[in-house]
Task: inverse folding
């Protein structure tokens, strides 16, 4: 049986583009539709953009209509509004309201990127990295990632770290890689947290420090990052950076295995076969080994045969049945499922409401809802969005949160009566 080992590969984040959407609209906002349309039809670019958002969202009393959304984004984009250019690029990228066209997507991303729009710069970098709508060019990808990263875009910071880590488009530099991973990790990006944990575990770009590695693996693991969950399990099994604890190792292997992580399934099978951190159970061991074997793990295939020698026919059949019926657990992530079922999977400790007060993602809610929570998710029309607690005022039951992206804030004006 192979030894459990930390997973060393560094994942390079490539995410799908997501439209910038406002917070959910109140009933009173619907009355603004007539004025918004009137201004849009007079050629006001911001109104055209906001009307496009309304059609995409199905808010302000209009039916959701992606073609109408793209139409109004185009009008605003042709007036050189960067937000609209970015959203029109997303429409072309995803075929929303227009025929999918990667070349057109790049065209509009570039227009917004040249106006210093960070998300457009990031997406343009992705296009160059993947050769979508433009010839693949690692140097150009790194260039655009850098522009977005310098504006504190966490996704771009992680990808720029990956460029330095792998020498893609820039000279390989592990110190620079760790620097950019850290910037993104400190913004609570799980992929960057995992990557930074790997840097500490390997001593690449930073002094080797398993305690720090465990810290970052845990941060990512608690956000359902399967590779981080697996690595955290290895740390608990081997006592690296944390006191050895076989039960904790099993806990984290299970979380990753349930997300269909092959190595975690193999390790969990070993734990059940040996009674290591969990009661010995050949049926469960067989289930997890079979699942790993189905994904091509050669050691798992050998262990399935070794296990069956110790099992009855009934046990073998039960293990096979459990493996056949297995369905990977889908865990909501940023931009993920915002249905009732999807939210329930996150097992929230509490819930509440709030409203955006700035376009760049600051919002207000109650302190009793957010507290100093390590993980806060916002339910929006765009799906689930991660947010972090910036400051709390327990006396007045207020909490200030920050989410990444562009949002439509609630209009707030000063009052002499306050």
Result:
């Amino acid at each position: 049986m192979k030894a459990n080992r930390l997973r060393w590969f560094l994942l390079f984040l490539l995410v799908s583009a997501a439209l910038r959407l406002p917070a959910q609209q109140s009933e009173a906002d619907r009355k603004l539709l007539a004025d918004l349309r009137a201004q849009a039809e007079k050629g006001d670019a911001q109104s055209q953009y906001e009307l496009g958002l309304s059609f995409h969202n199905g808010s302000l009393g209009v039916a959701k209509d992606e073609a109408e959304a793209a139409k109004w984004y185009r009008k605003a984009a042709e007036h050189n509004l960067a937000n609209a250019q970015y959203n029109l690029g997303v429409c072309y990228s995803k075929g929303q309201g227009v025929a999918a066209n990667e070349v057109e997507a790049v065209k509009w991303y570039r227009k917004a990127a040249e106006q210093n729009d960070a998300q457009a710069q990031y997406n343009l970098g992705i296009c160059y990295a993947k050769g979508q709508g433009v010839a693949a060019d690692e140097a150009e990808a790194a260039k655009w990632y850098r522009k977005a990263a310098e504006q504190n875009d966490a996704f771009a910071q992680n990808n720029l770290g990956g460029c330095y880590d792998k020498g893609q488009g820039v000279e390989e530099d592990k110190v620079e890689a760790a620097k950019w991973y850290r910037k993104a990790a400190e913004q609570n990006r799980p992929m960057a947290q995992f990557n930074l944990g790997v840097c500490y575990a390997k001593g690449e770009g930073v002094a080797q420090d398993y305690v720090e590695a465990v810290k970052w693996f845990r941060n990512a693991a608690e956000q359902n990052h399967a590779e981080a969950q697996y690595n955290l399990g290895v740390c608990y099994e081997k006592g690296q950076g944390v006191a050895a604890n076989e039960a904790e190792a099993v806990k984290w292997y299970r979380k990753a295995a349930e997300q269909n992580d092959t190595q975690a399934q193999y390790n969990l099978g070993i734990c059940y076969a040996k009674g290591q951190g969990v009661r010995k159970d050949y049926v469960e061991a067989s289930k997890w080994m079979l699942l790993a074997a189905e994904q091509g793990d050669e050691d798992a295939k050998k262990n399935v045969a070794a296990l069956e020698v110790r099992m009855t026919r009934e046990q073998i059949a039960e293990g096979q049945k459990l493996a056949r019926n297995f369905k990977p657990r889908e865990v909501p992530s940023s931009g993920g499922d915002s249905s009732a079922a999807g939210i329930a999977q996150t097992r929230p400790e509490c819930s509440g409401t709030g409203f955006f007060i700035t376009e760049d993602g600051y919002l207000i809610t109650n302190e009793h809802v957010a507290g100093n929570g390590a993980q806060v998710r916002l339910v929006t029309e765009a799906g689930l969005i991660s947010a972090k607690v910036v400051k709390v005022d327990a006396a007045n039951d207020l909490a200030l949160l920050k989410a990444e992206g562009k949002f439509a804030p609630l209009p707030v004006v000063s009052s002499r009566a306050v």
In short: The longest strand covers residues 383-393. The radius of gyration is 24 Å. Residues 59 and 254 are 41 Å apart (CA to CA).
